[in-house]
Design a protein that fits this description.
Order of helices and strands: HHEEEEHHEHHHEEEEEEHHEEHEE
Shape: flat
Strand order of the largest sheet: 1-2-3-4-5
Strand content: 15-25%
Number of strands: 15
Length: about 375
């Protein structure tokens, strides 16, 4: 019965909030799966959470999601403690939710519903088995701005540290917080600020040079510039005052190391081809058979593409109404957003559309 109710609710929400094709949910789930790559799960201690269960999901040391499962921890008339599941929900990064809304042109309520279903199917079921509570489930999802909340366990506050000592530590090591903020801040705000500052210092004391080994030497070529698409000759390799590795006096993260035999233009064209022919794009536009790169001009950072459609009788006159395909919207909205997400140096996308048999339809 529970599964039937969830299915009905899901269908109603889809009808209310989605105007695109049936593949939209799969596209969003694929995007969510990519966001979860490289995350770290922290399971809370029920004894410190009134018998309730929770999970934090962290990426690069900060929280991006948290799931909570509440139990009724009461006593019956005979005395023994009851531990019945009450309700569960997931809180997801507002930034990720907003990105999905802008990228796929869907409403927030629909996105939150998809996240709740996806999380319940892929994570809650497994967590219930691990904890011996197969009955737990996620009923809804909320978006929340975690504001850089540090992942549990990354930084521990000394047990006997006073509030004044925490404030002194924050002031001594950060200029981010002013006197007005300290006057208005609650104890938990002070703790959060302490953890953020302490985590930043921790990262500085564990420099990049200790985590990676460089396979480059003076005289080699790397890619630099705003979009990491300009050839730069390595003249010096050193460290800055923080202990981070530098190339030509600039932080290593401002450069990209070329793979053996790789040419910059080849890399950009290959990456663009993969993005344009990804399941995300074809999920939104199932009429597309393939997108190929016709021309890439690195001087003005423009790219022209050839769109091969799956419709044998598609023409410029029926393309919009019958096939619901707008190449201008594809290029100006979806492709450019994907390009920006991957940090590729492209300003504009031009197109030429052909039918499945190779007949020219339109261009821009």
């Amino acid at each position: 019965m529970k599964d039937i109710i969830r299915k009905v609710l899901r269908e109603e929400i889809q009808k209310k909030y989605v105007r695109s094709n049936a593949n939209m949910e799969k596209v969003i789930i694929s995007y969510l799966n990519k966001q979860m790559v490289g995350t770290k799960r922290i399971v809370g201690d029920p004894e410190k959470f009134y018998g309730n269960l929770d999970e934090h999901w962290c990426k690069n040391g900060v929280v991006i999601a948290r799931s909570v499962y509440y139990f009724n921890n009461d006593e019956d008339d005979d005395g023994p403690e009851l531990h019945n599941f009450n309700e569960g929900h997931i809180v997801f990064s507002k930034q990720i939710v907003d990105d999905i809304k802008r990228l796929f042109s869907v409403r927030e309520n629909y996105v939150l519903n998809v996240i709740a279903e996806w999380y319940d199917d892929n994570y809650t079921t497994k967590f219930g088995e691990e904890t011996g509570h197969p009955e737990i489930e996620v009923s809804y999802c909320e978006s929340y701005d975690f504001k850089g909340e540090i992942c549990p366990g990354e930084v521990e506050i000394p047990e006997k540290m006073t509030k004044d000592e925490k404030i002194k530590f924050i002031k001594d090591n950060s200029n981010e917080y002013g006197e007005y903020w300290f006057d208005q801040a609650w104890s938990n705000d002070i703790d959060d600020a302490y953890k953020k500052v302490a985590y930043k210092l921790k990262k500085q004391n564990n420099p990049l040079s200790e985590m990676i080994k460089l396979d480059i030497n003076v005289g080699d070529t790397v890619m630099g510039g705003k979009f990491k698409n300009k050839k730069v000759i390595v003249k010096t390799i050193g460290k800055n005052e923080k202990g981070d590795i530098t190339i030509n006096g600039k932080p290593l993260l401002r450069f990209r190391i070329l793979k053996e035999g790789e040419e910059p233009n080849d890399r950009i064209i290959n990456e663009l081809t993969k993005i344009f022919n990804s399941k995300l794009i074809k999920g939104i536009y199932p009429i597309i058979d393939r997108i190929d790169i016709l021309r890439y001009d690195k001087r003005i950072m423009d790219v022209d593409i050839i769109i091969k459609s799956d419709g044998s009788d598609m023409t410029e006159s029926n393309m919009y109404n019958e096939y619901y395909f707008d190449p201008h919207w594809l290029c100006d909205h979806h492709l450019t957003k994907f390009i920006k997400m991957f940090g590729l140096p492209i300003n504009k996308v031009g197109f030429r559309v052909f039918s499945h048999e190779g007949k020219f339809i339109t261009a821009y």
